[in-house]
Amino acid sequence: MSASPFSDFVSHAPGHWPDVSPEDWGDYKWQLKNRINTLADLEARIELTDSERAGVLLAGSKLAMSITPHFFSLIDPNDPDCPVRRQVIPRLEEGWTAPEEMSDPCGEDSHMPVPGLVHRYPDRVLFLVTDRCASYCRYCTRSRVVSGVGEQHLETQWEQAFQYLEKTPQVRDVLLSGGDPLLFSDSKLEKILTRLRAIPHIEFVRIGSRIPIFLPQRITPELCAMLRKFHPLFISIHSNHPKELTTEVRDALGRLADAGIPMGNQSVLLNGINDSVDVQRTLVHKLLRCRVRPYYLYQCDLITGSSHLRTNVSKGLEIIEGLRGHTTGYAVPQFVIDGPGGGGKIPLNPDYVLESHEGRTLLRNYEGETFEYPEPTPAPAEALELLKERSTCCP
Ligand SMILES: *Cc1c(COP(=O)(O)O)cnc(C)c1O
Ligand code: SF4
Question: Which residues are the signal sequence here (predicted)?
Fold first, then answer.
């Protein structure tokens, strides 16, 4: 008998909705319609702390609260520090803006040639196609526009954006994000992808989405059949904690993988949620089993109201140090900081080079042993001369 590689995947359905039928639960429209988005909805299902109650009231004018029944059912009602709970239920601290925080921490608004299109790197663009998500992450880097309740609004100029892409041949890679593009209907997504694929210099299309985690029911066979017509198409998912990888999520990711869609995962390092080697190791191992390659581990951006969720930079380095060499290379994400104000993604790595001078590099491995790697020694002219003679004289 072979052990299943999925024995640690569980389902929480129907969680806090004991009366709902499996058909409704499995229907993404039911999930969207029954999202938790008011204080009353929340309090009817779990007991809140004073800090959470205040946080929910403050969130209404900043970043809306919205939680799918699927994701909500992963919350431990008896643990205010539950790692799922803290990602989606606001707290009082969210209302405080630390001096280092910004509403647009990655400087996206100043890099938009067309509203909704961020062109920071030479050959690729970030296309913000919607401001809505299935649920809202309290640390969202785009909370200035996402959810539609803040002061700023996303005003994507579709026609202008497509025209910009058509006349900008250096763009070979388009990343659809938002908000969450997979919240669009199949036909709307198909129209967008068709228009992009009609541009000859666009080689590569990616979709950034947390739908497989928040709303796995949306990953229908019909959606997968549509997406696979647009290859090469990649999807970047967003998962932060192993608890998020349920049997439903595993099956949804399996459908995407079976449609030939390579997937990467982007995690945000969050204080008290996933800031340990143990949690990250469990997460990345579960991701690999879902055929998702850990891609980036982000230092949390300096978004307003995030100080209680951010960690020190050293924490991320400690996590990479604890993974690299100790586990499968495919499982190790790249730790990055998005340069505050608009620097783009900057990779950070533990120092494996101890010193480097006079033709030698002193290295250490993951266990702390040191090794020396010398520079190449060029072959001396006499040696080459000798070799040449030998190669011509012999029968
Ligand atoms: C993250 C990002 C991309 C994609 O970066 P990769 O390192 O290629 O994944 C492109 N544009 C912007 C503005 C981004 O923030
Ligand atoms: S899913 Fe992404 S865009 Fe939506 S709230 Fe979360 S981090 Fe922001």
Answer: none
